[in-house]
Amino acid sequence: MQAIIIYGTSTGSTELLAGYISDGIKQAGIDVVIRNVIDTDVDDMQDYDIIFLGSSTWGEGDMQDDFIEFYDAMAGLDLSGKKGAAFGPGDSSYDMFCEAVNLLEERLKDCGAAIIAPGLRIDGDVVEAEEAAIEWGRQAATALV
Ligand SMILES: Cc1cc2nc3c(=O)[nH]c(=O)nc-3n(C[C@H](O)[C@H](O)[C@H](O)COP(=O)(O)O)c2cc1C
Q: How many A from CA of 83 to the centre of ligand 1?
């Protein structure tokens, strides 16, 4: 079983989160690769059993800029039989807190993937959330082994 984490980031927060989550997934004994969304094609997801998608939220509840094209390209994709989960950093002083996580979770479901963990939404400094993010990755992956 192999997992992929695909992230989009503007200032590095989602990339940091992706690293923490991968540590947790590895602790559960599952192989994982981390890819920036700008270097990833939607079809690449077909090579993995578990798909973690991460994006920060910008504007008025928008996806991170680099993720928009990938998110749009996912429409109509068949991910049935695959497991998935979404994560992202945000700031609860905004009305649409971590809306990108909701959007990614919905898209994974629309593509037929089974959601294996409730979306991880980190409010504020992601460094302070290191342990929580590792644990989230570990628990999500543990459920599968
Ligand atoms: C102009 C601006 C708009 C933002 N809008 C939102 C928002 O609507 N919802 C939210 O949860 N966070 C919002 N944020 C917070 C970012 O998502 C947060 O800083 C995040 O850690 C950035 O992650 P990244 O570096 O991976 O892109 C906003 C930040 C800025 C500067």
A: 27
